[in-house]
C-alpha cells in the first residue's frame, strides 16, 4: 500500500505549516523578501520530519501562491519516491502533515472580502484560503472543499475585519465540528488557462520563474524564432525585451547575458559577471531589466524579422 493512501481517510493536524498573507508587512520588492521557494525546497528535502512554521508576506505579489502551493504539492508527492529516506522516515514525514494558509481579500465591493475555504488535498495536506482561485494550480490534488460563510459561522464575530487571524484554526480538522461549513463542488475550482504564460515567481536574486502548461512547446517556438528569424522579442505586460539568449542551461551562457532556459519551468536569468558587486547583481537582474513585473504578468512573444523590424 502506498504511504499516501494511509492518510487519505483520516487527515491529521498539520505540524508543518506555511502562512502566506498580505497582512504581515515587509518590503514590496520581492528581492528583499525571504525566498519562499528556496525555503520550501530546503524544508522538504533536508528537514522532511521536522515540525516547522513559516510566514511570508505576499502584498503586491498575491498570485505567487499559485506557484508556491504547486511547489508544496510536488514536494509532498516526492516524499514516497525519495531514495535517501527510509520507510519509517517517509511515514513520519507524511504523518507530520502540511497546513497552508493563503490570505488576500481586498475589500473592493460591499462584502467583507472573499469567503474562506477549507480544502483537503492528498498526502495529508490541508489548505485554508480566500476564494477558490488559489487552488487552480493544484486542482487535481484536491479531495474535498468546504466554504466558511462570512457571517454566523461560529469562528469569528459577525463583521470581523481581521478574519485571517481566526481562519488558520481550521487547519486543524478537529475544529470543523464547531464551525459552520458548506460543501463545495470540486468543479467550482477554476482551471488554469492552457494558453497562459505568466510570471509565477521572482526569487531573491531577481531571477524570474514563469509558468505555462506546455513548457516544451514554448521553448520550441523560441528555438524556431531564434533559428529562422533574427531572434525573438518578449513582452512582459507592456515591457518589451530583446537580446535574450536561449540556452540549454545557465552554465552554457556567457557572463553578463540575459538567458531564457528550461528548468522544469521556463526561467529568465541574467548570468552574473565576476566583476559584479552584490548591488550590480540585483540592479541588473532580469526582474529589474524587465520592468519589475508583478507575479501574474502575462508574457507574449514575437519574432524579430531579418530586417530587424
Explain the overall architecture.
- This protein has helices at residues 36-46, 64-78, 87-96, 215-228, 278-283, 286-289; strands at 16-21, 52-57, 98-103, 116-121, 125-130, 142-148, 182-184, 197-202, 208-212, 232-236, 239-241, 245-246, 258-263, 265-270, 299-303.
- By secondary structure, it is α/β, with parallel strands linked by helices.
- The strands form three sheets. The chain has a seven-stranded mixed beta sheet with strand order 2-1-3-5-4-6-7, covered by helices on one side. Strands 8-9-14-13-12 form a five-stranded mixed beta sheet.
- It is globular and about 65 Å long.
- It starts with 15 loop residues before the first strand and ends in a 6-residue tail after the last strand.
**Largest sheet, described in full?**
7 strands, mixed
- Given as residue ranges, the uncertain stretches (5+ residues, pLDDT < 50) are 3-9
Termini Cα gap: 60 Å
Structural class: alpha/beta
Please list the strands of the largest sheet in the order they lie side by side: 2-1-3-5-4-6-7
Order of helices and strands: EHEHHEEEEEEEHEEEEEHHE
Measured as a percent range, the helix fraction is 10-25%
Principal-axis shape: globular
Total of DSSP H or I helical runs spanning 4+ residues: 6
Whole-number radius of gyration?
21 Å
- The tally of beta strands, per DSSP, is 15
Taken as a percent bin, the fraction of beta residues is: 25-35%
Chain-averaged pLDDT: 91
Amino acid at each position: 500500500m502506498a504511504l499516501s493512501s494511509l492518510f487519505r481517510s483520516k487527515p491529521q493536524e498539520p505540524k508543518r505549516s506555511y502562512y502566506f498573507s498580505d497582512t504581515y508587512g515587509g518590503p514590496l520588492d520581492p528581492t528583499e523578501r525571504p525566498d519562499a521557494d528556496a525555503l520550501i525546497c530546503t524544508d522538504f528535502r533536508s528537514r522532511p520530519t521536522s515540525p516547522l512554521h513559516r510566514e511570508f508576506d505576499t502584498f503586491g505579489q498575491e498570485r505567487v501562491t499559485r506557484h508556491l502551493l504547486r511547489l508544496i504539492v510536488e514536494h509532498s508527492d516526492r516524499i514516497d519516491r525519495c531514495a535517501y529516506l527510509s520507510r519509517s522516515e517517509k511515514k513520519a514525514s507524511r504523518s507530520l502533515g502540511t497546513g497552508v494558509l493563503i490570505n488576500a481579500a481586498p475589500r473592493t465591493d460591499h462584502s467583507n472580502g472573499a469567503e474562506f475555504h477549507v480544502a483537503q488535498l492528498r498526502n495529508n495536506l490541508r489548505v485554508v484560503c480566500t476564494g477558490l482561485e488559489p487552488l487552480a494550480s493544484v486542482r487535481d490534488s484536491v479531495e474535498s472543499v468546504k466554504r466558511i460563510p462570512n457571517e454566523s459561522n461560529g469562528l469569528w464575530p459577525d463583521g470581523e475585519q481581521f478574519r485571517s487571524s481566526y481562519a488558520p484554526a481550521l487547519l486543524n480538522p478537529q475544529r470543523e465540528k464547531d464551525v459552520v461549513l458548506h460543501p463545495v463542488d470540486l468543479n467550482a475550482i477554476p482551471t488554469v488557462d492552457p494558453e497562459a504564460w505568466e510570471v509565477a515567481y521572482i526569487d531573491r536574486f531577481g531571477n524570474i520563474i514563469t509558468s505555462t502548461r506546455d513548457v516544451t512547446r514554448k521553448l520550441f517556438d523560441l528555438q524556431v524564432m531564434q533559428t529562422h528569424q533574427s531572434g525573438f522579442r518578449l513582452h512582459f505586460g507592456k515591457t518589451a525585451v530583446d537580446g535574450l539568449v536561449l540556452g540549454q542551461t545557465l552554465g552554457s551562457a556567457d557572463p553578463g547575458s540575459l538567458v531564457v532556459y528550461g528548468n522544469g519551468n521556463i526561467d529568465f536569468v541574467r548570468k552574473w559577471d565576476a566583476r559584479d558587486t552584490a548591488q550590480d547583481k540585483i540592479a541588473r537582474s532580469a526582474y529589474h531589466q524587465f520592468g519589475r513585473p508583478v507575479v501574474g504578468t502575462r508574457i507574449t512573444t514575437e519574432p524579430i524579422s531579418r530586417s530587424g523590424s
